[in-house]
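User: Let's play a game. I give you a shape written as tokens, and you guess the letters that built it. Ready? Here's round one.
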């Protein structure tokens, strides 16, 4: 779907030095933190299907309405664990989505930040249309998000299942939009929109300001 493999190094940005047990209050500072975001898809006879996941823990989870589902698997670049943000992305997919991906499975799409709003993705005359709302998803956390597209059609599924992310299923665009991305309970539809929209892929641009994008 995307032609160039990702070889991205953002080591000059502030990473987090934290363990899973450390709290947010200890670690948040005045820096912009680097995060990886990945959208997973599989290939089939009917075309691409995208993975939908339900976050079980964290700020954007079912314990924190209105967050419910997401098409992106992501989290923070940890300087004590990851050589670069590509390592972050592969680690998170293995840990959270439980697919045994390698660096070569990742394809770089673009960069977003330093904040993201809630958004809706719909079909208008069969064209994916993104509406970014004037409602910040995480208003107190500045970050630089690097987006990757990942084909897991032939990638090994790891066991046991993750305790932090539940795989809901794999859906074509019509099903995905009707069931998930057209609702404010689905987080960060702009990442999926950037992958669907070839103009944004070529520009490496992920929209973040409130408005309508086609």
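Assistant: Ready! My guess for every position:
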């Amino acid at each position: 779907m995307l032609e160039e493999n990702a070889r991205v190094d953002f080591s000059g940005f502030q990473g987090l030095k934290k363990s899973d047990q450390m709290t947010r209050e200890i670690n948040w500072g005045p820096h912009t933190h680097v995060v990886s975001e990945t959208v997973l898809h599989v290939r089939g006879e009917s075309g691409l299907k995208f993975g939908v996941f339900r976050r079980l823990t964290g700020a954007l989870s079912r314990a924190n309405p209105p967050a419910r589902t997401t098409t992106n698997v992501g989290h923070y670049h940890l300087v004590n664990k990851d050589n670069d943000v590509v390592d972050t992305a592969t680690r998170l997919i293995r840990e959270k989505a439980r697919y045994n991906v390698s660096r070569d499975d990742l394809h770089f799409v673009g960069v977003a930040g330093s904040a993201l709003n809630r958004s809706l993705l719909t079909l208008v005359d069969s064209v994916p249309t993104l509406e970014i709302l004037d409602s910040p998803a995480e208003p107190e956390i500045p970050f630089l998000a690097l987006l990757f597209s990942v084909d897991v059609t032939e990638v090994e599924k790891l066991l046991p299942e993750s305790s932090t992310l539940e795989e809901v299923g794999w859906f074509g665009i019509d099903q995905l939009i009707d069931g998930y991305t057209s609702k404010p309970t689905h987080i960060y539809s702009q990442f999926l929109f950037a992958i669907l929209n070839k103009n944004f892929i070529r520009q490496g641009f992920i929209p973040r300001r409130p408005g309508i994008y086609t």
